[in-house]
Amino acid sequence: MRLLLALACLIAPTICAKPGNDAIRLSNVQTLTLHANRLTSARRVSPIPQLNCIGPNKKVCNLYQPDVMRCTNQGHDYDLEDVQWTCTADLPPEFKLGATDVICEGYRHADDKWVLKGSCGVEYRMLLTELGEERFGYTSWETTDWDKMSKSQKFWTGLGNLIFFGFLLAVFLMIAVPFVLLLAECLGLRRSRGDGEGRRWGGGGGPGGGGPPPPPYSAFDSHKSTDDQRWRPGFWSGAAGGAAAGYGLGRYYNGERRTAPRRSGGYDAGEGSSRTPSFSSTTASTGFGSTRRR
């Protein structure tokens, strides 16, 4: 590999020529020291943070940010400039580093072997240890499809769910309400027949009595008040209506609850939370990663 590179430099010196005084090769860099709240150098593209936590969830990233991270060149992969890195930072025992990828700006283009000096930053993943899962809760940090949606996507998704379950509720009521009305009417007729039979065997209406005429009685009591024959809302109709409404609303909110981030207890560090967790001590944590150019 080195022999071929030397031959290429002899044939076309511009290939190996340094494009600028601020251009370097990562294969010649042994260590990188990155700081929080600082930006990289930039030439072709916009600068990036020297330390950037990319997950697995921003809520975990917001719990703690290391002040300094030191990355060490651990050799290369298939290409001499495809450097592999180990990055170390001091973290509380609740956290550990995951993947740590070094991102640098190609000097002339994104695939340039030469990179701009001072343009490298680290994209790292902050993970919870077993102690962190016990303190902050594990399932509350799972990334879900609902978390990945924008506000407009959440609005239209919720509106679509509401329309869908509202339609199901309307169909249910169209089927349930006539059945409940018919059941209530049958129960009312049966009760009126039972009352008529009881009056048939009772004492006759004396002077001044307001009782019904003497037998024979017809199956239908014409003297019964029309108010008694009219159906009134009762227990079964109220139960059916309440069940239908609860069914529709419950399904909708349960659907949201399934897509919204779950929480198994512990610390609540949601958006807008003013509480900041405190940590007593830190230990060195190491992550591994490769090189990317931008």
Overall description:
- With 294 residues, the protein is α+β, with helices and mostly antiparallel strands.
- It folds into two domains: 13-143, no CATH class; 148-196 and 224-259, no CATH class.
- Helices cover 37% and strands 20% of the residues.
- The protein contains eight helices and ten strands.
- It has a four-stranded antiparallel sheet with strand order 2-4-5-9, with no helix packed on it.
- The radius of gyration is 38 Å and the shape is elongated.
- It starts with a helix and ends with a strand.
- The relative contact order is 0.18.
Walk me through the topology.
Elements: H1 2-11, H2 13-16, E1 23-25, E2 31-35, E3 51-53, H3 58-63, E4 68-76, E5 83-91, E6 95-104, E7 114-116, E8 121-128, H4 130-136, H5 145-148, H6 151-200, H7 226-229, H8 235-259, E9 283-289, E10 291-293
Parallel strand pairs: 3-8, 6-10
Antiparallel strand pairs: 1-7, 2-4, 4-5, 5-9, 6-8
Helix pairs in contact: 6-8
Overall body shape = elongated
Overall tally of domains: 2
Which regions have little confidence, pLDDT < 50, spanning 5+ residues?
Answer: 222-229, 256-265, 269-273
The major β-sheet equals: 4 strands, antiparallel
Main location: endoplasmic reticulum
Membrane topology: Single-pass type I membrane protein
Keywords: Calcium, Calcium transport, Endoplasmic reticulum, Ion transport, Membrane, Signal, Transmembrane, Transmembrane helix, Transport
Pfam family, one: SARAF
